[in-house]
Design a protein that fits this description.
146 residues; alpha+beta; Endonuclease I-creI; 4-stranded antiparallel β-sheet; 5 helices; globular
Length: 146
Amino acid sequence: MAKLNQRDMLSWLAGFYEGEGSIGTYTRGSRQVDISLNVTQKEQQPLELFKEYFNVGNICRNRKESDRECYQFQTSGMNAVKIILELSPFMRSERKRKQALDALNLYFNRKNIERKNYSLKSIAAMSRPRDENGTYLKVPTDKVIS
């Protein structure tokens, strides 16, 4: 893959996540909730881009029911939140945006973090990516649903 600038890389990663990824919450113990982000793919190389760009997560090899090998990028907790916050301004799938919003709201509300009822527009505003000089990139927040 050719070297992409930061905005193009985030756009590419968001599109790849929308096609191959998921985010969800799960409960550990009686009350502790956590959030997990996974991206599964037959080829390992595209998943390496997630790990390299965000500098978090693990890639493991899995076998699907069809007994075909696949790979999965996995991360959880605030690392998963960080990734969704950075990708959300570039996401176009309403279903994936809703999935992310539901997971974030459940996670933050269960963690008793002050903000409640996030909108993806507010998430996009909080997570505006920056270029190498620290300047905010212009992101297409007009396409992000509330």
